[in-house]
């Protein structure tokens, strides 16, 4: 690269595509190949109608703030000079807001972008309210997606078909294993959001006395079990089922659970 040109904020420039570099904090990580081809065809026919936003960087490079997809599409059809507009302010904030306004981010990309912004700028959740124009309660729900296991995040980062509400419901689980199990059930059984919410811990349909009766019946049946003739597979399935049951009980006893089950007072406990 040659010496850095002097750019003025708000002025439009014609810039070579090779002068741009990607922003590592760009919130959008996935570009749909089919949509990219459609954009390339549009650029071939009509040119680039919206300028790329950039900020000058070291050694003459221009950091892309918004418009990476336009640049990639332009390269596909041999367009080497594109319009660019220099902007001021935080690059990651501008990029996030631009992508949110265009609804270009998957729920996981949005959550990870908000998390990066909090770390990079020492923001609190309430600080993000004015940046992304969302309520603090919604920001809190979106950020809960960063608790999802890496396997789920990696898959959903590139998949815009999984609704944000479904992922938020899954993220309510306390343990990663429970999140993974519920996510696989969603994928395999094509559960609705309402079914996901029920599976995630909404047990308001039963009265407490019904739970007590259910526990008593379960204790009776477990006490009558004879596992001597069971196969190894049956024993494994049984142990897994008990492990899942234990996880559910621990969740219900957790005081931070949305529907905690209070243990009886000591005076009420059996000796």
Overall description:
There is one protein chain. The chain is an alpha/beta fold and 271 residues long. A five-stranded mixed sheet has the order 1-5-3-4-2. Helix 1 packs across helix 2 (68-76) and helix 3 packs antiparallel against helix 4 (107-121). Residues 202-206 and 255-271 have low confidence and may be disordered. The protein is elongated and about 80 Å long. Helices cover 52% and strands 8% of the residues. Among the domains are: 12-102, Conserved hypothetical protein from pyrococcus furiosus pfu- 392566-001, ParB domain, CATH 3.90.1530; 126-199, no CATH class.
CATH class bucket of the domain at 12-102: Alpha Beta
Backbone CA Rg: 26 Å
CATH architecture of the domain at 12-102: Alpha-Beta Complex
What is the helix tally?
12
Order of helices and strands: EEHEEHEHHHHHHHHHH
- Uncertain segments of ≥5 residues (pLDDT<50)? 202-206, 255-271
CATH topology of the domain at 12-102, anyone?
A: Conserved hypothetical protein from pyrococcus furiosus pfu- 392566-001, ParB domain
Mean pLDDT: 77
Beginning-to-end CA distance, first to last residue: 80 Å
Gross morphology: elongated
Beta content comes to 5-15%
Instruction: Outline the biggest β-sheet.
Output: 5 strands, mixed
Structural class: alpha/beta
The percentage helix is 40-55%
Strand ordering within the main sheet: 1-5-3-4-2
Q: How many E-type strands? A: 5
Task: Tell me briefly what this model is.
With 271 residues, this protein is α/β, with parallel strands linked by helices.
């Amino acid at each position: 690269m040659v010496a850095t040109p002097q750019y003025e904020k708000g002025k439009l420039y014609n810039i070579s595509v090779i002068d741009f570099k990607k922003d590592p904090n760009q919130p959008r990580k996935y570009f749909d190949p089919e949509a990219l081809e459609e954009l390339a065809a549009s650029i071939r026919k009509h040119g680039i109608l919206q300028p790329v936003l950039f900020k000058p960087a070291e050694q003459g490079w221009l950091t892309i703030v918004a418009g990476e997809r336009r640049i990639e599409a332009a390269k596909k059809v041999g367009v080497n000079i594109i319009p660019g507009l220099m902007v001021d302010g935080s690059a990651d904030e501008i990029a996030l807001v631009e992508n949110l306004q265009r609804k270009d981010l998957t729920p996981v990309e949005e959550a990870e972008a908000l998390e990066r912004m909090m770390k990079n700028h020492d923001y609190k959740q309430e600080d993000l309210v004015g940046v992304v124009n969302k309520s603090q309660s919604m920001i809190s729900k979106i950020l809960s997606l960063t608790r999802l296991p890496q396997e789920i995040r990696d898959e959903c980062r590139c998949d815009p078909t999984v609704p944000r509400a479904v992922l938020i419901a899954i993220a309510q689980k306390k343990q990663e294993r429970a999140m993974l199990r519920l996510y696989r059930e969603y994928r395999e059984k094509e559960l609705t959001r309402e079914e996901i919410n029920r599976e995630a811990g909404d047990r308001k349909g039963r009265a407490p006395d019904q739970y007590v009766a259910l526990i008593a019946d379960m204790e009776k049946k477990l006490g009558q079990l004879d596992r001597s003739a069971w196969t190894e597979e049956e024993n494994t399935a049984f142990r897994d089922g008990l492990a899942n049951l234990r996880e559910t009980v621990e969740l219900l006893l957790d005081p931070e659970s949305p529907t905690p089950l209070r243990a009886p007072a000591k005076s009420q406990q059996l000796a």
